[in-house]
# Entry
Amino acid sequence: MRIDVHDPERDQSMSNIAAISATPGTTAARAAGFGVFAFGALLGLYFGVLALVSVWAFTASGFARYWYFFVPLAAGFGIQVAIFVRLRDTLSRRKGAGTRSRREVAPISRNRWP
# Structure
């Protein structure tokens, strides 16, 4: 037997989540900007460190030879940074919809199991 308990606090937090995901904003553009910056920064770090350690011709020839490793690696790093920034911005915009304490979760989970 399943007992559903009306919880106004839970309903409010769910409406906050729906409002956040439906609100248009610059979060996606900001996250994409950080991702592109991280992509460029990682490639810049590669070129900077390798140019300091060796001559520029070796750096350029190494990138030309193995670009298909470096570009996807930097792109994956940029995507990870963009996902992190998007998630952090989305979670920071949630007002009052934080995690519940163990005391609040225990009665809810007990009523949900048959």
Remarks:
- Residues 5 and 111 are 8 Å apart (CA to CA).
- The chain has a mean pLDDT of 79.
